[in-house]
């Protein structure tokens, strides 16, 4: 969390380096555009696109049986 309670994505620095402009949404500073929308669309059609969804809900599992619960939900490694 930064800027007086405003959250940043895990890949914020990457978005910034790629020239993203940001807007606030639900307490998060999210990338809105990387420049010309026609250029973005052309790249979308001719290259791969990745989405940074690290602003989504997180799950906190704690307590004595946390490892057992996580193993049951996500499978044992």
Q: What does this entry look like structurally?
A:
- This protein has one domain (7-74).
- It has helices at residues 12-17, 37-46, 66-74, and strands at 7-8, 21-25, 28-33.
- 32% of the residues lie in helices and 17% in strands.
- The radius of gyration is 17 Å and the shape is elongated.
- A hairpin with a 2-residue loop joins β2 (21-25) and β3.
- Strands 1-3-2 form a three-stranded mixed beta sheet.
- The mean pLDDT is 88.
- The two termini are 31 Å apart.
- It is of the alpha+beta class and 77 residues long.
- Strands of the widest sheet, in order across it, are 1-3-2
The total beta strand count reads 3
- Contiguous low-pLDDT stretches (5 residues minimum) are none
Using the alpha-carbon principal axes, give the shape: elongated
Number of helices: 3
Q: Strand-and-helix sequence, N→C?
A: EHEEHH
Query: In percent, how much strand structure appears in the residues?
Result: 15-25%
- Measured between the Cα atoms of the first and last residue, the distance is 31 Å
The rounded Rg comes to: 17 Å
Task: Give the number of domains.
Answer: 1
Biggest sheet details: 3 strands, mixed
Please state the average pLDDT score: 88
Estimate the helix proportion, in percent. Answer: 25-40%
Q: In terms of structural class, how would the helical and strand content be classed?
A: alpha+beta
Offer a quick outline of the entry:
The protein is of the alpha+beta class and 77 residues long. The protein has 3 helices and 3 strands; from the N terminus they run E-H-E-E-H-H.
């Amino acid at each position: 969390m930064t800027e007086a309670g405003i959250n940043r994505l895990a890949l914020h620095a990457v978005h910034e380096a790629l020239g993203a402009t940001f807007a606030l949404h639900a307490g998060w500073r999210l990338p809105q555009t990387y420049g010309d929308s026609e250029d973005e669309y052309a790249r979308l059609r001719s290259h791969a696109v990745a989405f940074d969804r690290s602003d989504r809900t997180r799950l906190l599992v704690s307590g004595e049986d946390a490892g057992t619960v996580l193993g049951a939900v996500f499978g044992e490694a």
